[in-house]
Amino acid sequence: MLKKLTKSGEYVHFLIIGIILLFYLFSSPVSFKSNQSNLYTAPLGIWIQDFISLNPTLGKVINVILITLISLFVNKIGKSTEILPRQSFITSSILSLFLLFSPETTQFTGCLVIMLLLTFSFSNMVGIFGKQYPYQQILTATIAISVSSLIIPQTIIFIIFIWLGFLTYSVNSFREWVISFIGLSIPYIYMLFAWYWYDNLDYFFDLYGNFFKTFRIDFTAPTTYQIITLAILALIYLSSMFYFINTASEKIINVRKRMWLTFQFSFISIVTLAIGGNSSFLVLPLVYISMSIMFSYSVHYQKQSRIQDILILLLIISIIINRVVVQ
After folding, report:
1. pTM
2. What is the C-alpha separation between 70 and 64, in angstroms, rounded?
3. What is the DSSP letter of 8?
4. Strands (DSSP E) along the chain, which ranges?
5. What Å distances lie between residue 135 and 110, 162, 294, CA to CA?
6. Distance between CA atoms of 289 and 76, rounded to whole angstroms?
7. 252, 247, 255: which is closest to 300 by C-alpha?
8. Counting beta carbons within 10 angstroms of the beta carbon of residue 281, is it exposed (0 to 12), middle (13 to 18) or buried (19 or more)?
């Protein structure tokens, strides 16, 4: 099934994405449990959640637009880096399907904004290979990470992805490392100035002070059906990741390094998920970014896709149960 989809044209995949988005619009969100009343503790996250809470219908429309943009953007990364064939559009469909395992609209919008920012950061990092002076790309990538941390603070850990990228690309100049710190600090400087300008700087410090004081890595147990879906997602990730890494050595050096960078992004996504605590389901979709590329790669290059077909079928059934049956 998936093997045939890899050979399908863009119109077939756009139709699949359209059906997935309609299912998202007209089905209930996955009901994740949490001990926290407000999962967004950073300034931009609180603002996004408050805005969407007042405009839930507009929020769903925004989410549909964001899902489409992210899916196409991730698909473009896979093709432009030569990890996937240039005519492939399956990554967009796979990522859209993964994103159906999502929370309610008010919580999901902030997560999608973070996904878009980190996808933009990822795109800049995979594009610096061979550039003699990649200062602009590094600055842009780190600024995007910093802005995402103003929505969910834990995503600041993606700066490690940037540093791992330097090691992967053998960046020896100290300028790139300094630029990464500058890019990380710029959004915070602007945010501090904005709060100071409106004479509300104490609120900013109280917000972050309260976050660090109350920070706990506690997990609320998901439901049985959610555990099943998470287990299927884990199997999809592990099966595609091992094949992805094992075959990286067969590629030419520029593709190989970009494949390692993709794996490193997935690794940092899982670390972010692990330290997310009760808000871990908000950062779960970050794993989907690199996972959709690795899964599409395994479907494309393995001789048989029977195992992937079974896993995707099980995932579709479990997502339908979570969104339609279990309420």
Report:
1. 0.92
2. 10
3. S
4. none
5. 28, 13, 28
6. 12
7. 247
8. buried
What is the per-residue pLDDT for 78?
Answer: 83
Tokens of 236: 């999809």
Burial class of residue 325, CB neighbours in 10 A (0-12, 13-18, 19+): exposed
CB 179 within 8 A of CB 138: yes
Amino acid at 100: L
Return the structure tokens found at 10. Answer: 């863009």
The one-letter amino acid code at 258 reads: R
Which pLDDT score, from 0 to 100, does residue 327 have? 61
Torsion angle defined by CA atoms of residues 302, 233, 105 and 200, in that order, rounded to the nearest 10 degrees: -100
- Exposed / middle / buried, residue 102 (Cβ in 10 Å: 0-12, 13-18, 19+): buried
Instruction: Look at residue 197 in the predicted model and tell me its pLDDT.
Output: 80
DSSP state of 323: I
Q: How far apart are CA 230 and CA 82, in angstroms?
A: 30
Ordered mean pLDDT values, 10 residues apiece, the chain (327 residues)? 71 88 88 71 86 87 93 87 80 92 87 94 86 86 94 92 87 85 92 80 78 74 87 93 86 85 93 84 91 90 82 92 80
The beta-carbon contacts of 221-224 under 8 Å, at least 24 apart in sequence, are 221/33, 222/32, 222/33, 222/281, 223/31, 223/33, 223/326
The count of other CB atoms within 10 Å of the CB of residue 233 is: 20
Interatomic CA distance for residues 142 and 36, integer angstroms: 29
Do residues 83 and 265 touch, judged by C-beta distance below 8 A? no
CA 64 remoteness from chain centre: 15
